[in-house]
Protein 1
Amino acid sequence: MGALDALSDESYTGANRCWPCTVLNLGIVGLIALFLRARERSMASLWVAVVGVAVVYLRGYLVPYTPEFAPRLVAASPVPDEWFHGEPAHGETSQEGVTRQENESLADDVEIDGETVFRELSAAGVIEVEGEQLFLTAAVDTAWHERMDELADRSLDSLSTALQASLEQVDNAEPYAREDTEWVVLGSEHKQLLPRPVVVAELAAYEVLGERLDDERLRVAGAEAFRMFLDRCPVCGSELVESSSVSCCGGHLGPRQNPDETLVCPTCEQRLYTFELSDS
Ligand SMILES: [Zn+2]
């Protein structure tokens, strides 16, 4: 089964399989097969059906970027969300576990509430409010983007070294790559994986904030907040798309909680920011 194992993608199959993606993709395979049959191309039709189903089985989905749009289709459809995601068993998916996994950030261990972060950032002239919207002030925004561009060109090794050198709280940082995805692993005992785009965005923000804030914890928390102002992926330059955390894949909170809005890079398939909506 070596060849099959190599083909299969664990992130979207097995326990991680996302049913919206699977159902949608099987439907598309079926439609193409029917279309070919109707045009009397039975061999092609059979081939599409067999290969299509096999790919969906092995990889979780066939149509590129399904994980980005399937959850939105499901969210918009009248079909109850529970049909796709069973209620988590008691104590199985703790809310803390989920947010941790979704919000990979240097600021994971920093506990400062969002309001304090924004008050301090605005007092330091880093952000400003216009109408109902928040913006980074022009000088900060320019400095941040210039720094991100420089960091984006660095190797993963060099990024890890820079991260360890800049941040007091990071005692160890190592590069880690698997298939097309790159991370920096932080810490020696309690390990944490930070995806490359997050490292670039937060390290650049942290350095820019260094000239404006003295408090180390605020710099780290502020660096995470900067990610909500991204409109392009700091690594590949793709325009970010707004998505929802109703799933794909494995990030489901539970039927009665509102899905959070997220910013996702469709090319890196990486979530860059999660706007946490309260689930009142
Ligand atoms: Zn990207």
Protein 2
Amino acid sequence: MHAHKRSSFSLVLSITLVGALFIHSNHSFAAIESKQPDESRSVVIRDITIVNVKTGELEPNQTVVTSGNQIVEIDDSNNIEIPDGATVIPATGKYLIPGLWDMHVHLMDDFKYAFPLLLANGVTGVRDMATELKNIADWKKEVEDNKPAPRITYSGSTLIQPQPDALPHLYPVTSEKSARDAVRLMKKHGAESIKVYSFLPRHLYKYIIDEARKLNMKVGGHLPIPVRAEEASRMGKRSFEHLDGLFIATSHEEDKLLKLANKNPDEHLNFELEAFKTYDAQKANKLFKLFKKYGTYQVPTLITYLQVVSPLDKELAPYVPEHYWADWEKAKKEMSVYKELIQKSLQNHENSKKMIKRMNEAGVPIMTGTDATFGIPNHVYGKSVHEELRLLVASGLTPLEALQAATLTPAKFMDREQELGTIEEDKLADMVILHDNPLDQIENTERIYGVVMNGTYYGKGELDEAVKTVINK
Ligand SMILES: [Zn+2]
């Protein structure tokens, strides 16, 4: 969404306008990833219980051995020989899960805060969903300088019709040529996906999808208002963000409400709220089947709306740089007068939880995403992933399904199931050691003991220290 330099009020409006397009690709993503440690470097996690996020089974008394950035051996602790010089982590009574992914963040130029915050929260991978192109080189440099960082896949700038308030992470397109050129430009900057925005005219959307398909890029982002959800899924939009347009799409008043939304795009939220009242289960199930068939993933970002309208959470102060904290206090004061909008947003949040429950029951793939940016008050990189997990469970997902939304499902979405998403031999060594079983209580994902990022082990104390250093409070 549009995060920077806007009041909370306009933030809410922009969220209602969000949506992403992803086109099918069989190629593995070329993300920004930290250098792999030497193969002689080894981490051994001893006597831990592995949480199998595929089956939900617990595998007790396991020892996990890494070499370089890979998991090379997993076995009963009795059968394992510990390599010379290995970093050994005794972990009796603890639980091991794959590193978490946030599939919708905005790192922008806040990556120096974001990287340590993400790692301290067990987030070992992010999908950035719109940035100013010059930021990409800065992220790369930070990673190449060997600063600890999660894996990053990204979409570059958001493709959108020219806007009066041109924000730096937006890239205007006006014609077939400029649409195709824009896709190629994002590719040139290393983007694996393309993000589009709500106000895109239908013909430009088609050119973007077509060009992206040629370049083997996925298309995600907001659902353009002139395009039906069903049509977008068939055309190859691979991820929907923020449940954008889905209430209208599942209403038996879809035609009428779409017409109104096209005429008054700024009032999109009102039409979505209206649409919820005329939900058509049969129609919805047809759409959900289509999402399954075409691999249209949902990134509901439940936490985003809630953060915008919730009172300032003072406990977050230690994780937020001073100048942002001042902005947050101001934004919350401004926001408080928009009582009706707050109430509507909370209603939309409740409706969204119901929509997620329905989609989950229908087998639609759901991924955790937060829209994390310091541009939204209460939104702290990494921490918000755990809040999103809790909201997914509150919407009716089991703790296992919520965990899958942050591990296995993103791995599938990115066509990287061979190397990510579960704790298995030959996969990348991105793992989180927890004090308690996350399947008992999803809150336990936040009770972190240590993190292995690309084969390097960081204790929680060390990770928290790194956060303190950058936030500098
Ligand atoms: Zn966003």
